[in-house]
Structure formats: C-alpha cells, structure tokens
Amino acid sequence: QVRPVESGGGLVQAGGSLRLSCAASTSAFRIVDMAWYRQAPGKQRELVAVINSGGTTNYADSVKGRFTISRENAKTMVYLQMNSLKPEDTGVYYCNTNRGIWYWGQGTQVTVSS
User: Fold this and answer.
1) What is the distance between the alpha carbons of residues 70 and 68, in angstroms, rounded to a whole number?
2) Mean pLDDT of the chain, nearest integer
3) How many other C-beta atoms can be found within 10 angstroms of the C-beta atom of residue 56?
4) What is the DSSP letter of 28?
5) How far is 41 from 73, CA to CA, in rounded Å?
6) pLDDT of residue 1
7) Average pLDDT over residues 28-33
8) 59: alpha, beta or left, given left = phi > 0 and alpha = psi -120 to 50?
9) Class of residue 93 by CB neighbours under 10 A (exposed 0-12, middle 13-18, buried 19+)
10) Do 16 and 5 form a contact (C-beta atoms < 8 A)?
C-alpha cells in the first residue's frame, strides 16, 4: 500500500502563494489519477483538485482560477500551486488517488491569515 508524503505548507498572508508537493512511491504512478484534498478545522475532508493520468485537470469551484495541479511522472510527484490564497483555504492538505484508496499521509498544514 502507498502512503503519500506531503510537504510545502506554511503560514501565509491572504493574497500570498504556496506550492505543495506530494511524493508517492509506486511504480504504477503514471497510470493513477491523482488528487489533492483538504480538511478545514471541524469540517470533512474535501476534494480540491484532480489530475488524471493523461494530464487533464479539474478543480473545485472554490479554487478554480487560483490553484493549479500538476504532476511529474518520472519523479512520482504531484504538485499544487496555490495563488491568491484566502483565509478559507486554511486546512490540512493531503494527496491521494482521485478515489482516496491509498493510506492517508500526515498532510501538510496551510494557514492563511487575513
């Protein structure tokens, strides 16, 4: 079973940017549809962005136009570029398959101050 490792979170002011990284060690990475999720305090985990094996992307309406998901198959890495951050983007960010079938990692904390 795969357990991704997320990194890149931090504290940023509203309007700022962060780039999250996710390492997922599996030889099948290039055929897996990947996603970023987030969990805000007191809320359920939600899907933020998806990138399929062909590179097609989809985003939650709340982040569309501000976040960009990408992948680097040779390094089995997924990234999330987050721009124009808002306080409501605060939460723990996780990566997993688009169906969430892997073990969940520890995530990376993103805190956006107003």
Assistant:
1) 7
2) 97
3) 9
4) T
5) 32
6) 85
7) 95
8) beta
9) buried
10) no
